[in-house]
């Protein structure tokens, strides 16, 4: 078997993730962290509800990471909207807001989990892995 045949056998599919956050710096840093993982890739980004809906329709991610505070919109309303339109689409909230105020609300709205931005990188990656999305790129 040639080198190319062996390489083809090792191609690994990656879980496509949509990042929805109103701060470009946060999206860029999260994308850097996520894209270093062999089985994860950020397939698109959005800063508000409108862009998020467009990106879901265009890219069909396996997981959406949403912030509570978005440009010109509310993350909690976005989660409810996504859950009603795409009930099988998994969502994880990564936010600066206190978990005790929002965690239960986002879970009831349809998100799979809630983690604060103050958590360590490893904790955020574990939360993403625990979401077990099925859509690969």
Could you characterize what this model shows?
- This protein is of the alpha/beta class and 137 residues long.
- It has one domain: Rossmann fold, CATH 3.40.50.
- The protein is built from six helices and seven strands.
- It has helices at residues 3-9, 24-35, 49-59, 75-85, 99-109, 121-130, and strands at 15-20, 40-46, 63-66, 69-70, 73-74, 90-95, 113-116.
- Strands 2-1-3-6-7 form a five-stranded parallel sheet, sandwiched between helices. Strands 4-5 form a two-stranded antiparallel ribbon.
- Helix 2 links the parallel strand 1 (15-20) and strand 2 (40-46).
- The longest helix has 12 residues, at 24-35.
> Would you identify the CATH architecture?
3-Layer(aba) Sandwich
CATH superfamily: Response regulator
Helical content (DSSP H or I, runs of 4+): 40-55%
| Strand segment tally | 7
Low-confidence stretches: 1-10, 133-137
Overall pLDDT metric = 86
Would you tell me which CATH topology applies? Answer: Rossmann fold
The tally of structural domains comes to: 1
Number of helices: 6
**CATH domain class:** Alpha Beta
- β content, as a range? 15-25%
Q: Structural class of the helices, strands and pairings?
A: alpha/beta
Shape: globular
Measure the end-to-end span. 26 Å
Radius of gyration: 15 Å
């Amino acid at each position: 078997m040639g080198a190319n045949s062996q390489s083809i056998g090792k191609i690994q599919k990656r879980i496509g993730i949509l990042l929805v956050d109103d701060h470009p710096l946060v999206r860029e840093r999260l994308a850097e962290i996520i894209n270093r993982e062999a089985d994860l890739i950020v397939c698109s980004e959005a800063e508000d509800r409108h862009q998020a809906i467009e990106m879901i329709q265009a890219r069909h991610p396996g997981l959406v990471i949403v912030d509570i505070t978005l440009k010109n919109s509310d993350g909690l309303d976005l989660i409810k909207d996504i859950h009603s339109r795409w009930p099988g689409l998994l969502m994880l909230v990564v936010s600066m807001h206190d978990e005790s105020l929002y965690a239960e609300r986002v879970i009831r709205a349809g998100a799979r989990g809630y983690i604060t931005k103050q958590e360590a990188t490893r904790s955020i990656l574990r939360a993403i892995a625990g979401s077990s999305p099925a859509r690969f790129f």
